[in-house]
Amino acid sequence: MAALGSPARTLRGLLRELRYMNAATGRPYRDTAAYRYLVKAFRAHRVTSEKLCRAQHELHFQAATYLCLLRSIREHVALHQEFHGKGERSVEESAGLVGLKLPHQPGGKGWEP
Predict the structure, then answer these.
(1) What is the distance between the alpha carbons of residues 13 and 62, in angstroms, rounded to a whole number?
(2) Helices marked H in the chain — which ranges?
(3) Distance between CA atoms of 81 and 59, rounded to whole angstroms?
(4) pLDDT profile of the chain (113 residues), mean per 10
């Protein structure tokens, strides 16, 4: 298993993803139920004087997994919007994409010298 980093860093990453999601709505992310749940859960599972706090490690692992999911979804949507096809293109547009030009007919279609 890869190193998870600190729980504070994971919490900051989750809150950053909440800010990205709520940026479109204009509502402050601190007013959401997700924010209140995350902060409450991380406060409830702080490191104690025990040598091994299994619940805290389990919460941290789940939070890191969820953070990875949120980041991946956001990046997937951004890539999809950037590179998604725009439907059928004309022959001229397709030729222009690869740097080619179609031959020009001076008299139009069916022109004969």
Answers:
(1) 13
(2) 7-22, 33-44, 54-83, 91-97
(3) 33
(4) 77 91 85 90 74 73 92 93 80 86 73 60
